## 1
Amino acid sequence: MIERLFRRPGSGARRRREKGERLGGYIYGEIVVLATIVGGAQAYKHGAGHIAVLVLATTGVFWLAHLYADALAESINKGQHLSWHELREVAGRESSIIEAAGLPVLMLVLGSIGIVSVHVAVWLAFIAGLVILVTEGFAFARAEKLGALGTTVIVAANLAMGLLLVALKLGVSH
């Protein structure tokens, strides 16, 4: 999924803008996913499948909200209503919010079908989310051609956001 950031067709400036928007969507989506897992793990202590559905529903709602808001903004920017093609382009750009849920949801599914316990599935989903945040930090650093210090700062900031949510989960569950 992250590699798609670097393979989108279009002009250089447009591609760079789209890469940034998609990367931002992945980061935003992953934070939403992790925050939803925090709430879901507390509400559904014995239901990894319920947590997975909650994550998918939440990211779906946030995707629709972003699609709606961005479509309105783009319509105002252009001074005209968006065509179906343009609306599909906005939907595709914003789809990274939903795509961010993929790996964590897969980990939760492992718990819902009994391959691992719900407790382990939730932690695997968290770890997957943290790994994705770190990967997204590296993707940003690569796109911006940051040096070692800049890369470290960005990766650490992404990881800190994720770890803050893990701390919240631990605080809520105890």
## 2
Amino acid sequence: MKLSKRGEYALRSMINLGIAAKVNRSLVRVAELANAEDLPVKFLEQVMQQLREAGFVESERGKHGGYRLAKPAGRIPIGQIVRLIDGPLAPIGCVSQTAYKPCNCPDPDHCGLRMLMVDVRNAIAAVLDRYTLADVVEVTTRKLVSNGLPLPFSTPAETISVRQKSRRYGTGSAASNPVDGVIHQLLGDYAI
């Protein structure tokens, strides 16, 4: 599975809409979303339309219009967004649960490649389906706050409020390894 640019833009925008909801921002214009992540506006408009049609976001038209999450971030598994935009998570068609395609292997029940790719699919799905948009928003805002950076789409007072809540609940250290992922940010050191 490789995340496409469309999938990356969708996830970045959804995370930003989750942050906006966390700081009580009711709507975010597509130009603001594009500017926040340095994304092309026209392409992002298409992505947002797809997310709207799937029920992940709502939009309001007009001068003061924009986008917002259609449901709470805690009810949006990351895997659902990825599947919507990029399709099945399986690296080969014969192990896909949503888009199965038979392979040309003479004995699929005993195919080592197929068994390996089932494990790959299961591992990817387990991570993407375990975490919700709320989890990623929490990790993102916690890291921004711990590094003393303002939250996107917030006023300084809102950033201070989130910073105080983060201190109250503990945020971990500001320094991290560039390969530390969401699991590390949520759980600290762990072993697989």
